[in-house]
Design a protein that fits this description.
Elements (H helix, E strand, L loop, with lengths): L1 E3 L2 E3 L6 H21 L6 H8 L3 H7 L3 H23 L6 H18 L1 H9 L12 H18 L5 H22 L3 H19 L6
Antiparallel strand pairs: 1-2
């Protein structure tokens, strides 16, 4: 198994056409899982949606689980890029917390890849190379932003507070997205101050 960019692959695409094929396979896998569920989704069904031979799927991905791992890594890259772009003009750390949470919620609602990962049961630690790798990556980037842009005092406790806020924020977003609009607004109104309070001791007043 090799890694090409964000994805673990059996072999690395050497041409743009092959790279586009990998993306098409991942898009087809998202659609297959969202429509049929993870257990019912099949590699042959994914190949049919991608309009390629099933052998072309196996050329890059040994099984369905590795496809979901690749989708999650693509999600992480897309999410990181979107957050980084939206944080460019943010002027307060509390607004930065809001941006990360709102971006996660938006992508979870609009990007089939996020839905596919939830339906596959990403909580299974076997889908991560190491426990918490996706949250840890974003937490590290967010901690560095809070230190560089807003004067956070970097320490072990600060890093733990950021990791906790990221993990709780994602859980909050998942809860809000399965409630009615009024209930979601209540949950978010109650939850955001909790995230702020976790980080406030490490930032200037």
């Amino acid at each position: 198994m090799v890694t090409s960019g964000a994805y673990p692959l059996r072999r690395t695409p050497t041409q743009d056409r092959a790279s586009r094929q990998v993306e098409r396979i991942l898009d087809a896998a998202c659609a297959e899982v969202v429509e049929r569920g993870y257990d019912a989704a099949s590699t042959s069904g994914i190949a049919k949606r991608a309009e390629i031979a099933v052998g072309s799927v196996y050329r890059y991905f040994p099984d369905k689980r590795s496809l979901i791992q690749a989708i999650e890594r693509r999600n992480q890259a897309r999410y990181t890029d979107a957050v980084r772009e939206r944080l460019a003009d943010v002027t307060s750390w509390r607004a930065a917390v809001d941006v990360t949470l709102d971006t996660f919620r938006e992508m979870h609602r609009t990007d089939p890849g996020f839905r596919a990962v939830v339906l596959s049961g990403l909580g299974d630690p076997e889908l991560e190379a190491k426990p918490g790798e996706f949250d840890d990556q974003h937490a590290g980037e967010f901690a560095e932003l809070l230190a560089a842009r807003f004067g956070a005092r970097d320490s072990r406790d600060f890093r733990l507070a950021v990791t906790l806020s990221i993990t709780m924020g994602e859980a909050l977003a998942h809860l809000a997205d399965r409630l009615s609009a009024d209930e979601a607004e209540y949950v978010l109104d109650q939850g955001r101050p909790v995230l702020y309070n976790l980080l406030a001791p490490h930032l200037p007043a």
